[in-house]
Design goal:
Layout (H helix, E strand, L loop, with lengths): L1 H6 L24 E6 L2 E7 L5 H12 L10 E2 L3 E4 L31 E3 L16 E4 L4 H4 L5 E7 L1 H6 L6 E7 L3 H6 L1 H13 L6
Antiparallel strand pairs: 1-2, 1-8, 2-7, 3-4, 4-6, 5-6, 5-7
Length: 205
């Protein structure tokens, strides 16, 4: 019996490997995105506590370098929007997947500097255009609240956001802080998103 146990790799209870704890979003410390543009840099906090799937999607796109070199192709007195590899308001890019909008009652468009995602339609059930985000320049409370899901808020460089001109470029985006728990919690989704992104007809490839 002892020989069989040794052959099977058994041993005293004290030799058993320690169980590996699965990370949860409770383990996620604040993380930030630093966006380098032609005008300088701005920085926003990702609201993983309110929009975890949206934040995981954004972090994954940053990990892939998806936004690097893309223009703020939609520009108005209200928003600066980026994430379309065609850089053309009349030609949309489909990443191969969508995500459901995540709304939180305390993330209202009652101030500028909110980072949100456009949706695929006006109806309440419309999904989110997962590859794009925009930053607001001023309050848009009743017009935007619970229509566009917010996943971040600018904490530095709002003057840069305001100064961005049409068709200026995102040079690169860097995630600051450890996004490991967020990535681990959504690992299966991220793998699925990456398979679909790899198959999408990105005009840059």
């Amino acid at each position: 019996m002892l020989a069989a146990c040794l052959a099977a790799g058994c041993g005293p209870a004290g030799d058993a490997p320690e169980p590996v704890e699965t990370p949860t979003l409770d383990d996620q410390d604040p993380i930030f995105a630093r966006v380098e543009t032609d005008r300088g840099a701005f920085r926003f906090v990702l609201r993983t506590d309110r929009a975890p799937v949206s934040c995981a999607n954004f972090v994954n796109l940053v990990d892939r370098g998806f936004f690097d070199g893309l223009d703020f192709y939609r520009h108005s007195t209200v928003i600066r929007q980026v994430g379309n590899p065609h850089n053309d308001e009349n030609l949309r890019f489909a990443p191969g997947y969508t995500i459901a909008p995540e709304f939180a009652p305390d993330l209202r468009f009652d101030r500028g500097g909110l980072v949100a995602m456009p949706r695929l339609g006006e109806e309440p059930t419309a999904m989110v255009r997962a590859n794009e985000f925009f930053v607001t320049t001023k309050p848009q409370s009743e017009r935007f609240t619970f229509k566009y899901p917010v996943f971040g808020e600018v904490v530095e460089g709002m003057d840069v956001v305001l100064a961005i001109a049409p068709d200026e470029t995102v040079r690169t985006i860097t995630i600051e802080g450890d996004a490991g728990p967020l990535r681990a919690v959504h690992a299966d989704l991220i793998a699925q998103w990456n398979r679909q992104l790899d198959a999408a007809p990105d005009p840059r490839r």
